[in-house]
Give the backbone structure.
Amino acid sequence: MKTTNSPAELIQFHTILATANLMAIIWLLLRFMTPFGWAFSTESFSGHLIIGILLFIGTFGALYFLLTSSSPIEQEKNIIDADHWNDAERRVISYLLFNSGECFQSELLEKCMFSNSVKVTRTVAKLLERGAVQKFRDGMGNRLVLNHHVSLTKNRRFEFGK
């Protein structure tokens, strides 16, 4: 079974490692780079106190980053599953995937075999509402760009001529 980690989990892991590295750097600075650094010893009370403080701060920092929830921006980046959408929407997504993620809206009428331009406009409006595509004005037409978080399995895609 393959396990995948979400970007939020990876960011938390990197933050914990960064906290541990920061604590190690502080210890090394106190130990070797200060004029009185050689006076700190792990056998003395002051050495145990400094090590204890650094371990406490590092543990607290790691637990803080583990227990805090992900930001709302990261929650919006969930994968959009297009497998159960209607045929028209899947045709547009398939064409965008086939066409490197962008095309003009005027191409969809012919390439995706829509009956009329009203059907194209309504389908694009639904995809815009779902956050699957973005629409930009480009000259006299509209350019559609596929959101990178849209997923459509290969067996649910439509085939286009090569």
About this structure: The mean pLDDT is 76. The radius of gyration is 27 Å. Residues 7-33 form the longest helix (27 residues).
